[in-house]
Amino acid sequence: MERESGEQGVTRVLFCGPHFPASQDYTREYLSQYPFIQVDEAALDDVPRVIGNYHLCVVKNKRFDSDIIAQAKQMKLLMQFGVGLEGVDIDAATKNGIKVARIPSDVTGNAASCAEMAIYLMLGLLRKQNEIQTSVNQRKLGEPVGETLFGKTVLIVGYGNIGIDLAKRLRPFGVKIIATRRSWCLNSEAPLQSNAGLDQNGMSDSLVDVKGSHNDICNFAGEADIVVCCLSLNKDTAGIINDSFLSSMRKGALLINIARGGLLDYEAVARHLECGHLGGLGTDVAWTEPFDPNDKILKYKNVLLTPHVAGVTEHSYRSMAKVVGDAALQLHAGTSLTGVEFVN
């Protein structure tokens, strides 16, 4: 691999947009002792104008279509500060000789951080966080009456790195865990084994009481008190939490989303909240981001929304900043890129 650097031997790294500012802050801090690496950020609208000056780009929530990619004349690597790359035209990048990569969530603490956020949202809905705040404001004691996580059945839709970390953390709460993964056979029972190891794919099957394939999600939804979306967003999963799925859920069951807003059919979710079939929504991601604070869905007291911060923790962000920083150093030195997961 030839050494790739910019003017005066500088390798230039671009972060797109103002959101998730700790990503560039921590990366810049990690690279501060290397004057030959330059870390910049650009407003989303300015990215097409400046992209040609950079060798590595962290896309964040900027959509990279073929037109923008065609202007990235010096670009060697497009990557995400995390795992989601649904906004990148990977075929166009490949045709232009640009590698595309994500940061594996299981080695940075990102999966653990997202799993903890899922539990936070579960407990917030079960203990009626919004109503609790109302009681505080009204100087009331002993209300509302909440529910325990203990004894509940939780369906994890998409048993990948985040789903596995979630199952590990849910087990001590005394819940029954159902999970789906495309590679699993239909409805196979998995007895609990507290000292069991990992399966051949390195995933902890033993944490799951009932396993199923992607085709089982509607059937399993009727057995769960809480459904957690951990799926990647793609053409097959967009809007998958629709009227049919929501109708198959138990009346009063909770829906948690820590993956991507586009997995949920917004209007269907709103209707099921309105009629009372859906017992609550806890989501860290939204249909459009940044989220509109005046959106009608926030009128419901059983809705908790957080601003896409599930993976935004000191541990995960410093770990991911190191991955980006190391990629920039490797790019500058002309050595093989390691520590990232290529998708092309």
How is this structure best described in words?
The chain has 344 residues and is α/β, with parallel strands linked by helices. The chain has two domains: 7-106 and 313-342, NAD(P)-binding Rossmann-like Domain (Rossmann fold, 3-Layer(aba) Sandwich); 110-305, Rossmann fold, CATH 3.40.50.720. Helix content is 29%, strand content 16%. It is built from eleven helices and 14 strands. Strands 8-9-7-6-10-11-12-13 form an eight-stranded mixed sheet. The chain has a six-stranded mixed sheet with strand order 2-1-3-4-5-14. Helix 1 links the parallel strand 1 (11-16) and strand 2 (37-42). Helix 1 (22-30) crosses helix 11. The longest helix is centred in the C-terminal third of the chain and has 20 residues, at 314-333. The radius of gyration is 22 Å and the shape is elongated. Mean pLDDT is 90; it is low at 1-7 and 186-203.
What is the structure about, briefly put?
This protein has 344 residues and is α/β, with parallel strands linked by helices. The chain has helices at 22-30, 47-50, 66-70, 90-95, 110-126, 129-137, 161-170, 217-221, 243-248, 266-274, 314-333; strands spanning 11-16, 37-42, 56-58, 77-79, 99-102, 153-157, 176-180, 188-189, 210-212, 226-229, 254-257, 280-283, 303-305, 341-342.
**CATH class bucket of the largest domain:** Alpha Beta
- What is the multimeric organization of the chains shown? single chain
The number of distinct structural domains comes to 2
Assign a percent range to the helix content.
Answer: 25-40%
What would the principal axes of the Cα set say about the shape?
elongated
